[in-house]
Amino acid sequence: MNHKQKRLVFSHTEPERIDKYLTTCIPEYSRAQIQRLIAEGFVLVNDIQPRKSGLMLEKNDRIDIRFPPPEPLDLVAEKIPLDILYEDKNVLFINKPAGMVVHPSAGHYSGTLVHAILSHLPDLEGIGGKKRPGIVHRLDKDTSGIILIAKNQESLRWLQRQFKSRDVEKKYIALVDGRPSTPKGRIIASIYRDKAHRKKMAIAPEGRGKHAETEYSTLKKFRDHTLLSAHPITGRTHQIRVHLSSIQLPIVGDKVYGLKHPSINIDRHFLHASEIVIRLPGEKRKTKFSAGLPVELNQILKNLKVEE
After folding, report:
1. Which terminus of the chain faces fewer neighbouring Cβ atoms within 10 Å, N or C?
2. Domain 5-66 carries which CATH code?
């Protein structure tokens, strides 16, 4: 936001929670961000700091909000080439290569997509979080393809709302070992964090985990493999990889959920985010963006024997 403070007067006849009300008045801030502003003393009601974010507002209550400056980043921009698919004043769509981590984390303190983006967009600091400025969603390190970056807080919230409401259409291309029992199918299985291996996800027992759905369809049949189009209805961590593995269709090269000894010599897993359909900020109609398969994945397909 351009201004650093804002005054509102609650005019509703029925009482309403302050955090809920402010989320509707300042849509570029999430409810969690609003609650944090309240907890940190940036919000006053009738010149008094609320004790909790569940305070009920009464008619004619006066709300004053101060907006703190973005958190400074401890990151240094790195001039790393980016494959830009689309860019305007609000968004940046990038074709991420396999092997690149999206945001800094333990063991990945440089060379991430965030470092590269900060070089391309120096003013992005503080948009959406200290460690992941502008990042709308994420892709696994060894998954290539389309990833969205928001250039301002309003655009970030606009895009995130579509992901949250499942109004975004995403398609991935995956090469799997084996053959699906039917050319098309839908996998419905909840996912949770593996109790034995905390870095892995797993199919959850009934009544536990987060609901997850993935649709798939066959693109091409090979002698020992199948090329699939995967459409995640939900967006859980490692969802496509876990779901396909659960029906005995592990993704080729997946070191976590795939075969112990890969059927093809590949230094990444064969999963590529090939398409996304979304409404750009301020637009009513959706736009489709595509990213073709990387050279190394195309070469693998050329070397495979087609089903006889």
Report:
1. C
2. 3.10.290.10
Domain with CATH 3.30.2350.10 in the chain: 84-164, 169-303
3-state secondary structure of 239: helix
Token pair in block for residue 44: 């006053």
Which architecture, in CATH terms, is 84-164? 2-Layer Sandwich (3.30)
- Does pLDDT of 3 surpass 60? no
- What backbone phi and psi angles, to 5 degrees, belong to 32? -65, -40
> Considering the entire predicted model, what is its pTM?
0.76
Tokens of 246: 């659960």
CB 191 within 8 A of CB 210: yes
Go through 67-86 and write b for each residue having 16 or more CB atoms within 10 A of its CB, e for each that does not.
beebeebebebeebebeebe
CA angle 278, 279, 282 (to 5 degrees): 160
The reply to whether 140 belongs to the active site is: yes
Residues in the chain: 308
Question: In a 3-state reduction of DSSP, which class is residue 153?
Answer: helix
C-alpha 134/C-alpha 150 separation (Å) is 5
Q: Give the residue from 172, 171, 190, 178 showing the smallest Cα distance to 249.
A: 178
Question: Residue 62 has what DSSP assignment?
Answer: E
Residue type, 80: I
Nearest of 98, 147, 81 to residue 296 by alpha carbon: 98
Burial of 301 (0-12, 13-18, 19+ CB in 10 A): middle
Residue 58: C-alpha distances to residues 10, 24, 46, 161 (Å): 7, 16, 11, 28
Burial status of residue 103 (CB atoms within 10 A of its CB: 0-12, 13-18, 19 or more): middle
Q: Residue 2 phi/psi, 5° resolution?
A: -75, -40
Check 19, 61, 140, 254 and give the catalytic one.
140
The 10s digit of each residue's pLDDT in 113-169 is 988 998 898 877 556 555 567 889 989 999 999 999 999 888 998 999 999 899 999
